[in-house]
Amino acid sequence: MLNTPLSRLRWIGFLEGLSYLVLLLIAMPLKYLADQPEAVRIVGGLHGGLFVLFVLAVAEVTLRRPWWSPKFWGAAALASVVPFGTFILDRWLYQVEQQDLAHRSQLK
Questions:
Q1: pLDDT given at position 103
Q2: Three-state DSSP state, 49
Q3: Which of 7, 58, 82, 83 has its CA 20 to 30 A from that of 104?
Q4: What one-character-per-residue DSSP string does 54-98 give?
Q5: How does the entry describe its membrane topology (predicted)?
Q6: How far, in Å, CA of 37 to CA of 79, rounded?
Q7: Is it the case that residue 1 has pLDDT exceeding 80?
């Protein structure tokens, strides 16, 4: 499942997007409405680590597909700051991954 750079990026992107939603929709309201800042500290730290992994995964894919560089980095950067953005990026990455698999099977 995690044997290609694209599959790793998809998995990390899913986790990063999920942590962002938990941060925005659960931890932030707990901090400001229930006076529980611990939630933001915990989820924020987790999200920060996943964000770093997401950037590293984007860099790995870019090294494997240098023709994607500017457009791909822009799409990934936008996806990382827009809620649900990584899930939208994932749909496109899934299609690319399926095309890669089809292409590899034709070569065999």
A1: 86
A2: helix
A3: 58
A4: HHHHHHHHHHH-GGGHHHHHHHHHHHHHSTTHHHHHHHHHHHHHH
A5: Multi-pass membrane protein
A6: 26
A7: no
CA-to-CA dists, residue 105 to 52, 59, 102, angstroms: 33, 26, 5
Query: What is the C-alpha to C-alpha distance for residues 22 and 93, in angstroms, rounded to an integer?
Result: 23
Check whether 75 has a pLDDT greater than 80.
Answer: yes
Q: Find the helix packing angle between 85-107 and 5-22, rounded to 10°.
A: 170
Q: What is the mean pLDDT of residues 56-69?
A: 90
- CA 46 to CA 32: how far, in whole Å? 19
Calculate helix-pair angle for 69-81, 5-22, nearest 10 degrees.
30
pLDDT of residue 78: 96
Task: Compute the distance between CA of residue 10 and CA of residue 2 in angstroms, rounded to an integer.
Answer: 9
- Percentage of the chain exceeding pLDDT 90: 81
Residue position matching structure tokens 């992107």: 13
DSSP state of 4: S
